[in-house]
Amino acid sequence: MSSIKTIAQSDILFVCHECDALQRVPAVEPGHDAICIRCKSRLFRNPKGGIDKPLALVIAVMIMFIVANIHPIMDLTIVGVKLSTTITGAAYVFWQSGSPELAAIVWLPSVLVPGLIIAGLCYVLFSIRFQLNWPYTKPILVLIDRLLPWGMMDVFLLGILVSMVKLADLADIIIGLGFYTFVIAVVLYAATIASLEPHTLWESLQDQSGKQNEFENG
Ligand SMILES: [Zn+2]
Predict the structure, then answer these.
(1) Which of 133, 146, 196, 198 counts the highest number of beta carbons within 10 A?
(2) From the first residue on, what is the mean pLDDT of each consecutive set of 10 residues in the chain (218 residues)?
(3) With contact defined as beta carbons under 8 Å apart, do 13 and 24 qualify?
(4) CA of 74 to the centre of ligand 1 (A)
């Protein structure tokens, strides 16, 4: 993400992530890829709809993620006792039963980290799309890049599915709204990350701060 240096808006120096070749890349048409001159791997893509697609996706993720965290994942009835819990509630049970490390393993990669990534992306994408020049967009984008490997909602979803299968014989399970919205959030989250082109975001931020400097100086 940090391996780009802007020369001009249409002509940049780019380091290939695969073979480390430093090369001058001319302007790329929307919807097309820039290809490495040495190893022919994809350097970056110039997305057709700009950042409208990732912005629309991340707003949808945010809504689903909030709903998934407010509503119970499932209702369990075991020997007449009814239990209902949200994701944070499940982590809190581990915390209360003296396993803070288990609580952290559940809560950090499935709630806190994805929450920070989604909120951070919303902030950066809104700022770029509507040319709002909000502060701290660059450090937030760097932070998102660092956090990305630690957001593992899909792993947590797999954990829920396994526990449902295991519990099916022991308890009556009613799947909650939190589970359905969590599944949608996982799919949309993956689509958002796939639609992001870090190179385009950095270019846009560079353009915005360039315009801001011109305005302040002139
Ligand atoms: Zn290469």
Answers:
(1) 196
(2) 40 90 88 92 85 94 96 88 88 91 92 96 94 93 93 88 86 91 95 88 80 61
(3) yes
(4) 48
